[in-house]
Design a protein that fits this description.
The chain is α/β, with parallel strands linked by helices. It is 42% helix and 18% strand. It starts with a strand and ends with a helix. The structure holds coenzyme A.
Length: 160
């Protein structure tokens, strides 16, 4: 059974991430979406909140598991028995960073393959920072994120 992990910060999950998951489940038996506990970024949502939003957004996918990890992504992949790491490639600007990470991860663990998937073109300009920024200034994010995320963002940035 081919299992892969899809690591990221997911602060918060967007429809672009969901698009990647929907493609990954077509290719692999199990997809573990794994929230990085310490990606070197300050986050708006706690790991537990991010896991909760992912679980709710992906509840209709039976072969998806949501978890979290600390440390090296390849160690977590080995720990759960994954053969590969899924990453999304939105635009050419993502490429250099993803290429560097993929080669470093291959150096660290030659038996774990990075698989880059392209989301639908409508998501190429999306990222979590833009969503947080939009929500902070009461912009409408409902087109870009699952409904649970819309609700959670309202609690972080209540109308004054
Ligand atoms: N749709 C929308 N947004 C997307 C997206 C998609 N399909 N794919 C990526 N993004 C966005 C994310 O929302 C995020 O936005 P933000 O920076 O505004 O928050 C950005 O692209 C990239 O973030 P993410 O995918 O979460 O990756 P990251 O650069 O934060 O790295 C890890 C996360 C877990 C992969 C990385 O920190 C890691 O590997 N950590 C472990 C340490 C390790 O193993 N190091 C050795 C590897 S070199």
């Amino acid at each position: 059974m081919a299992k892969v992990i899809y690591p990221g910060t997911f602060d918060p999950v967007t429809n672009g991430h969901i698009d990647i998951v929907s493609r990954a489940v077509e290719l692999f038996e199990q997809v573990n979406i794994t929230v990085a506990r310490n990606p070197g970024k300050t986050s708006l949502f706690s790991v537990e909140e991010r896991v909760e939003m992912l679980n709710e957004s992906l509840k209709n996918y039976s072969r998806v598991v949501v978890d979290s990890f600390d440390g090296l992504v390849v160690d977590h992949a080995k720990h759960v028995g994954a053969v590969g790491i899924i990453r999304g490639l939105r635009a050419i600007s993502d490429f250099e960073y993803e290429f560097q990470m993929a080669l470093m991860n291959r150096k660290l663990a030659g038996d774990i393959t990075t698989i880059l998937l392209m989301p639908h073109a409508r998501y190429t300009y999306l990222n979590s920072t833009i969503i947080r920024n939009l929500a902070q200034f009461q912009g409408d994010v409902s087109e870009f994120v699952p409904s649970i995320v819309v609700e959670k963002l309202k609690t972080k940035f209540p109308r004054k």
